């Protein structure tokens, strides 16, 4: 039995079984104490509605809008996060000068910036959600990239510079430093991905923008007291996050084989 669980495929398969079992136990436990008017829908009904949801145009359209906002926010936060993080990691003096400003903005919840962004582009703008989501995700990427640079061992990096055989700083950066911090970029991106999904769906739930995403659809179904669909859509968000994180994890383990962090 011990040898069986050493197989990563076996443990992963059991991991997939734990989730539905946990949901069933949670459902039974909640319904034991909840009043009749707040009874949790049966898990089999929710799972059935998940499959039904994927055949409905409204759900597919909402999912597409959510993925579009997610893609824009992730692309911008990754691109500018790497560039700014590299700049701030050039020296300790640059970081010490910029850290108070970065920490200041990091402490401000994204929801408090809604009035400012809405004033600039309008609360019904199609871009308001991904613009707001980019702000905190960008900060996450900056900190991870900068942390990756700061933890490099100078002697080790210098030896790699010598091995690379190039005196050009630009070439040395892409031959050595970039590969050194690539694991930190991927780790930061995975954190950013999960955080971005949460922010975007919450902003959609608040009915920002002029297009309905998964979060907005949950709001609509909640207003219609369709609790089965509310939970089904919530699980779809969880499935979306799991699939996207798994894709990034596979890419990280395949292409960054020198990383000590194998998730």
- The CATH topology assignment is MetI-like fold
Average residue-wise pLDDT: 82
Order of helices and strands: HHHHHHHHHHH
SSE-based structural type: mainly alpha
- How many domains, as an integer? 1
The CATH superfamily is MetI-like
Shape: globular
What does this structure look like?
It contains eleven helices and no strands. By secondary structure, it is mainly alpha-helical. The protein has a single domain, classed as MetI-like fold (Orthogonal Bundle). The protein starts with a helix and ends in an 8-residue tail after the last helix. The mean pLDDT is 82.
How are the SSEs placed, and which strands pair?
Layout: H1 2-5, H2 8-33, H3 43-53, H4 57-88, H5 92-106, H6 114-121, H7 128-150, H8 154-164, H9 169-205, H10 214-223, H11 227-255
Helix pairs in contact: 3-11, 4-7, 4-9, 4-10, 7-9, 8-9, 9-10, 9-11, 10-11
């Amino acid at each position: 039995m011990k040898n069986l669980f050493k197989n990563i495929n076996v443990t992963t398969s059991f991991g997939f079984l734990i989730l539905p079992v946990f949901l069933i136990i949670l459902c039974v436990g909640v319904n034991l104490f909840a009043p009749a008017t707040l009874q949790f829908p049966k898990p089999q009904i929710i799972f059935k509605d998940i499959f039904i949801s994927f055949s409905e145009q409204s759900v597919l359209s909402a999912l597409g809008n959510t993925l579009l906002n997610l893609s824009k926010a992730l692309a911008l936060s990754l691109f500018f996060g790497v560039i700014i993080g590299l700049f701030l990691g050039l020296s300790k003096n640059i970081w010490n000068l910029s850290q108070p400003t970065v920490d200041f903005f990091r402490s401000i919840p994204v929801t408090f910036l809604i009035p400012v962004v809405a004033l600039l582009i309008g609360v019904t703008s199609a871009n308001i959600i991904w613009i707001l989501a980019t702000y905190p995700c960008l900060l996450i990427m900056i900190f991870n990239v900068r942390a990756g640079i700061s933890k490099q061992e100078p002697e080790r990096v210098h030896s790699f510079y010598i091995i690379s055989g190039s005196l050009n700083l630009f070439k040395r950066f892409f031959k050595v430093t970039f590969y050194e911090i690539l694991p930190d970029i991927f780790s930061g991106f995975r954190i950013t991905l999960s955080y971005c999904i949460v922010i975007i769906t919450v902003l959609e739930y608040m009915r920002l923008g002029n297009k309905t995403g998964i979060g907005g659809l949950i709001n609509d179904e909640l207003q219609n007291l369709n609790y089965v669909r509310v939970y089904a859509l919530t699980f779809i968000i969880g499935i979306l996050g799991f699939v996207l994180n798994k894709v990034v994890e596979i890419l990280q383990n395949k292409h960054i084989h020198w990383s000590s962090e194998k998730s």
